[in-house]
Design brief:
Structural class: alpha+beta
Order of helices and strands: HHEHEEHEEHEE
Strand content: 15-25%
Radius of gyration: 19 Å
Helix content: 40-55%
CATH architecture of the largest domain: 2-Layer Sandwich
Largest sheet: 5 strands, mixed
CATH topology of the largest domain: Heat Shock Protein 90
Number of domains: 2
Length: about 230
């Protein structure tokens, strides 16, 4: 049975809306990568002017890594827009957490990790899983600025898969935003885009998983992520 014109129009609108959201998320992620490239380039130029060749080389290597990350962002996120099947592999969570924080160290946060057992691994697209936790960490840090946040990440294996709680001691999510915090362009921060959490939700769903806010209206926030175990 052929779809009616209304059904076709609705489906086209939904597809275009999805592509528009992903395009905004791509721009958001590229902005972070380009910021890292610009910052490292300035540091490399400064060190080179002082003849510090060893640190200059380190900055150049980091620039190359950030450029590679920027190139992969479009391919990775367009998988979500076009609903192509994502690459699936065993990804150790200890690796995911460290990679997700790689460019956040300069923003200042104290980290507390607990993995039971320590070798826990999820089944999924490694780069996308890293991006999801990066979005959660970045959200916690920016919400707490200028104070130093404590971010606790606990992971455990349950019969249905792996559950990860990311908890911070920041100001929390206002009660009136609790049901909308994952919507694009909804943010508790002045000037915030809300695209980071929207991307995190999209990635979780693409893996057959879920992500949810633990509570709203109080200090601190907990985001619970459920993913398939490797």
């Amino acid at each position: 049975m052929l779809p009616t014109p209304t059904e076709h129009s609705d489906r086209t609108y939904d597809q275009l809306a999805t592509i528009g959201e992903v395009a905004a998320e791509i721009a958001h992620e590229l902005q972070s990568a380009l910021h890292a490239i610009s910052a490292r380039a300035l540091l490399a130029k400064h060190d080179a002017s002082r003849g510090a060749t060893e640190t200059t080389l380190d900055h150049v290597n980091r620039i190359a890594e950030s450029a590679h990350s920027a190139r992969s962002i479009v391919d990775d996120l367009m998988c979500l827009a076009t609903q192509r099947s994502i690459r699936s592999e065993s990804v150790p969570l200890s690796y995911v957490f460290l990679e997700a924080r790689r460019d956040l160290s300069e923003r200042c946060a104290r980290w507390d990790d607990e993995l039971e057992p320590a070798e826990l691994a999820v089944r999924g697209h490694g780069t996308l899983v890293v991006r999801m936790f990066h979005a959660l960490y970045e959200n916690a840090i920016l919400a707490s600025t200028p104070r130093l946040p404590v971010i606790a990440t606990s992971a455990r294996l349950l019969p249905g898969g792996i559950v990860v709680d990311v908890t911070d001691d920041g100001p929390g999510v206002p009660l009136h935003l609790g049901n909308r915090i994952f919507d694009p362009l909804v943010s508790a921060r002045p000037g915030g885009t809300g695209l980071g959490l929207a991307l995190a939700l999209r990635i979780a769903h693409a893996h057959g998983g879920t992500i949810a806010l633990g509570f709203a209206g109080g200090p601190g926030a907990t985001f619970r992520v459920a993913l398939p175990a490797a």
